[in-house]
Design a protein that fits this description.
Number of domains: 2
Number of helices: 10
Largest sheet: 2 strands, antiparallel
Oligomer: single chain
Strand order of the largest sheet: 1-2
Low-confidence stretches: 1-8, 132-150, 233-241
Order of helices and strands: HHHHHEEHHEEHHH
Radius of gyration: 23 Å
Shape: globular
Distance between the termini: 69 Å
Number of strands: 4
Length: 241
């Protein structure tokens, strides 16, 4: 190993590559053609996500444009993406486990919904846009100067602006659901009220915010559900019909 590498420095080879890359770069001018790029939404900067999850979301958002052009949507008109984990890992130069963790992050934050297609088939990925990404909140409407607000406070303020039609639930009145959402959750999840209280306490103690509380509650319920025993219908040749 090169001594500079052993000391935590950069190898001479890497330095030569940097010099070569710099020689191939050029300055931007009025006539410079800017090549294709991946959109990176500003709201990602204010969300409690790892950098891998943020880049992964930007990549899936970019792929959604192709899906929309191809007409890949469900019966409700929701556009979905088909992007196997093995391909995502290769593009981002990450392990399969890292990609899976990043996908879980996005789903927990309400930015992604996965739909299983069956054995050996890739999931359908529904990229979601948070409420604060649809409408900007003018600075003059905020009571506190943006320079004095934390990222979580800013995102919480923006979410509240978009959720005026929702009712506040939980001990700390920070879980926002519409009447329709609460009614559907009540039918789907037996202990929904307990989950709402847990989400309310967790958000208050951690300062973490979610783009869609209904999706987050469903995600929590799925993780808390016990694994059902699978019945064995196999039989011997003598017992078969």
């Amino acid at each position: 190993m090169n001594p500079s590498e052993a000391a935590g420095g950069r190898s001479d080879r890497n330095k030569r590559m940097d010099v070569k890359n710099r020689d191939q770069m050029e300055y931007l001018t009025e006539r410079t053609l800017i090549r294709d790029f991946i959109p990176y939404p500003r709201f990602l900067l204010n969300m409690n996500l790892t950098q891998t999850a943020r880049i992964l979301y930007a990549l899936l958002l970019d792929r959604s444009k192709i899906s929309r052009n191809n007409g890949w949507k469900n019966e409700k008109g929701y556009v979905y993406v088909i992007y196997p984990i093995i391909d995502l890992a290769q593009v981002l130069d990450k392990s399969h486990m890292t990609i899976k963790k990043a996908l879980n992050e996005l789903e927990d934050a309400g930015l992604l919904e996965r739909q299983k297609q069956g054995f050996s088939k890739p999931n359908l990925l529904y990229v979601r846009i948070p409420a604060e990404g649809k409408k900007s909140v003018p600075v003059r409407e905020r009571k506190v100067s943006p320079n004095k607000m934390s990222n979580n406070q800013m995102i919480y303020s923006q979410i509240n602006k978009e959720r005026e039609a929702h009712s506040a639930y939980g001990k700390y009145n920070n879980v926002f659901l519409s009447e329709t959402e609460y009614g559907e959750l009540k039918q789907e999840i037996r202990e929904i009220d307990r989950l709402i209280e847990e989400l309310s306490s967790y958000m208050r103690s951690s300062g973490k915010q979610y783009a869609d509380h209904a999706v987050t509650l469903r995600r929590w319920a799925e993780r808390a559900a016990p694994v059902k025993n699978i019945l064995d219908y196999t039989c011997s040749e003598e017992d078969s019909l």
